[in-house]
Amino acid sequence: MFAPDPDAFEAILQRGRSALAWEVLRRDPDYRADRTVISGSPADAAFVSRWGLHFR
């Protein structure tokens, strides 16, 4: 049976939804592949167009 990690839950509460979204996104294999293939810059126009976001 799955038991939630209280430390992980606390980290989400402290850092907010954007930190959780980033954590999920950075583990996505398609995102990671695009991140390295498309110029390597998260602000690259093709990258932003595909993912609809960028991080500074």
Secondary-structure map with pairings?
Elements: H1 6-15, H2 17-26, H3 29-37, H4 45-51
Salient structural properties:
mainly alpha; 56 residues; elongated
Task: Explain what the structure shows.
By secondary structure, the chain is an all-alpha fold. Helix content is 64%, strand content 0%. The chain is built from four helices and no strands. It is elongated.
State the order of secondary-structure elements, H for helix, E for strand: HHHH
Instruction: Note the quaternary state here.
Output: single chain
Strand content: under 5%
Q: Major β-sheet, in short?
A: none
Helix content: 55-70%
Radius of gyration, in angstroms, nearest whole number: 14 Å
Q: For the residues shown, what is the average pLDDT?
A: 75
Helix tally equals 4
Low-confidence stretches: none
Structural class, judged by helices and strands? mainly alpha
Shape call: elongated
| Span between termini | 39 Å
DSSP strand count: 0
Protein name: Transcriptional regulator-like domain-containing protein
InterPro entries: Trans_reg_dom
Domain Transcriptional regulator-like: 5-56
Outline of this structure?
The chain contains 4 helices and no strands.
